[in-house]
Amino acid sequence: MKTLFALYDGLSGRLDRLDWLLPTVARFLFAAVLAGYFWKSGLTKLGDGFLGVFTPSMGAYAQIFPKAFEAVGYDSSQLGVFHWVVVVSGTLAEFILPALIIIGLLARIAALGMIGFVTVQSLTDLYGHHLINDPKSVGAWFDRFPDGLILDQRGLWMFLFLVILIKGAGPLSLDRILKRGL
């Protein structure tokens, strides 16, 4: 039995030296699986022209403030500065935070921002878009069905962000390059 544990400890020690792999793979998976999702979602919120981020589309308000937008008859001019700031900030976040994670610049801060973003996105989906009443969309943990939009999918997204938040961006990142240069 001692030999078995010694073998296990030896293998575990080798795996401990691969600690850099976890944040690197987390950033790769984010880029491969989720970055396009956030980029495309951000594009749906842009208004016309080069500075369209500052003149959000009607869809931006409908996605982020569905109840408030409906309450003003889908007329965004009836919404206040607060709504505009949140929509513009959210739209910018969908472009900037994923880019920072992918290149590994300020990755921990970007991961924390994405945790906040996905939390707000999930709450908006649950309560603003009434998915709270749809058990299939909400999903349930430990139910053998891995396709619930909120609990299942976004739980895995959060795990990627937590890895980056806790471990950093890894060796293949601008964070590491800049750290060495200082």
TrEMBL record:
InterPro entries: DoxX
Pfam family, one: DoxX
Native organism: Shimia aestuarii
Compartments, record wording: Membrane
Keywords: Membrane, Transmembrane, Transmembrane helix
Keyword Transmembrane helix in record: yes
Protein name according to UniProt: Putative oxidoreductase
Lineage start: Bacteria, Pseudomonadati, Pseudomonadota, Alphaproteobacteria, Rhodobacterales
Membrane-protein topology: Multi-pass membrane protein
Recorded GO CC terms: membrane
Residue stretches spanning the membrane: 20-39, 51-69, 81-102, 109-128, 155-174
